[in-house]
Please model this.
Amino acid sequence: MAKLVSKVYGDALFEVAVESGRLDEIWEQTRAMQTALEENPELFALMRHPKIVKEEKVKIIESIFTGEVCAELVGLLRMIVEKDHFAQIGKVLAYFDDQVKEYKSIGTAYVTTAMELSDAQKAAVLKRLLETTKYVTFEMHYEVDSAIIGGMMIRIGDRVVDSTVRTKLYDLTRELSKIQLKAGECAP
Model:
């Protein structure tokens, strides 16, 4: 249900943003809105409080966001509140963000290594990703995890390239456990 809600509202907002020629403006505002919502968990609690009627919730949303974001976003928030989907607002905005990035050919890469990469190494990873994908630019996220021992794991969307030592050792162990020597086949 949550995925359907985020898709329906996210697609509608994306369509409005593209058709109006204001994609960048609306995208920037949704990112600011996401940050504002994340930094104010009490707003979530207020919007989900069962004793506050929808009309009052709509007034609260309008008083907070009118003049701060475009009318389309205020309208989206109003509709989400009226349909009792405010709990999904983060997913709606994240879905919209993903749609915009795909439209603009902006990839998001999560790179995990055992040690911190130098700036030159990060530049080399970015260069290689740009050469081997359809994206024209990337939002890069780096993480250090010493448990992978060595190598690198890169995740872009649902694709994962895992060349970590930990995974190679796991695969080798699994393959070796499949080998069973039968009686009489042992070397003398």
Observations:
- The mean pLDDT is 90.
- The beta strands are 106-113, 137-144, 152-156, 159-162.
- Residues 58 and 81 are 7 Å apart (CA to CA).
